[in-house]
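stage 2 :: seqdesign
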């Protein structure tokens, strides 16, 4: 992986990590599905009027609205309402082995010893980190695991589907996700209008940050990187996210810095180093995807 792409991955990780903190703060003022719906409304409003999709791209966008909009984000926001920010980030990292397994099954991507070893070391760090926060109840735990699975399925769909510009994809999947998540809010939540009118910087700050920084910037970059690199090579880097979330939790949410967090963070970073340091030294020739599937021509 070229150093440029590695730095882009780090930017994505930082944005995602802070997004967990912002969501947790926003949930103090708005119910989870309402917050998710408002996020998608803002993303769609900023992008859809200026973009178009084709009939070939429409089935992929509809699938992403379900896997990414409803399954990943809808369940994530609900789960975070009943779990610590760090716990949610850790459990969603189970999307990494989910995605790697799905890629091996459906994309026939070969799992070599070194990436598997690095992923196991990194994932062991996630397990150690998970020993710190209080685990949520069965419902929240199930929702967070389903959110992780939705993230893995989304990566697979993006990798195998027709090419769509990242911003276009984010805008249109958000538009089709609005009725799915919004209907859930109408059925399972109450006092939505009161929550919106009484929300302060936490609630609306979470909506704006989650929409602009996470949906538009971070996932736009992530989808671009998925076109350049194999799923097995790229996905393990996301294991850095819970490390950053734990640090931000200490700084912003007064969470403790326990020994298990330090050990777990070191394992996560060490596993990622096993997977990627050699590849950073051997950057591919410009224009040639680094071990991934070549982007489809328009």
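stage 2 :: out
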């Amino acid at each position: 992986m070229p150093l440029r792409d590695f730095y882009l991955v780090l930017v994505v990780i930082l944005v995602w990590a802070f997004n967990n903190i912002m969501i947790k703060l926003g949930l103090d003022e708005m119910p989870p599905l309402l917050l998710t719906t408002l996020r998608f409304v803002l993303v769609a409003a900023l992008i859809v009027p200026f973009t178009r999709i084709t009939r070939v791209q429409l089935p992929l966008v509809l699938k992403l609205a379900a896997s990414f909009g409803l399954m990943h984000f809808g369940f994530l926001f609900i789960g975070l309402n009943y779990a610590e920010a760090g716990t949610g980030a850790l459990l969603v990292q189970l999307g990494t082995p989910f995605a790697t397994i799905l890629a091996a099954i459906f994309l026939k991507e070969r799992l070599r010893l070194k990436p598997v070893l690095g992923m196991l070391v990194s994932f062991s760090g996630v397990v150690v980190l998970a020993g710190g926060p209080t685990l949520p109840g069965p419902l929240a735990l199930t929702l967070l695991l389903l959110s992780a699975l939705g993230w893995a399925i989304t990566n697979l769909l993006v990798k195998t589907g027709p090419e769509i510009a990242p911003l276009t994809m984010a805008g249109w999947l958000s538009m089709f996700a609005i009725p799915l998540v919004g209907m859930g809010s109408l059925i399972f939540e109450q006092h939505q209008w009161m929550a919106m009118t009484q929300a302060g910087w936490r609630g609306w700050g979470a909506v704006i940050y989650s929409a602009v920084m996470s949906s538009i910037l971070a996932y736009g970059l992530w989808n671009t990187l998925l076109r350049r690199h194999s799923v097995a090579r790229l996905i393990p880097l996301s294991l850095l996210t819970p490390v950053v979330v734990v640090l931000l939790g200490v700084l912003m949410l007064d969470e403790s810095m326990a020994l298990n967090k330090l050990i777990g963070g070191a394992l996560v970073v060490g596993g990622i180093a096993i997977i990627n340091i050699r590849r950073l030294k051997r950057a591919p020739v410009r224009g040639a995807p680094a071990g991934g599937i070549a982007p489809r021509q328009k």
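stage 3 :: structure notes
- The chain has 13 helices and no strands.
- The CA atoms of residues 72 and 151 lie 6 Å apart.
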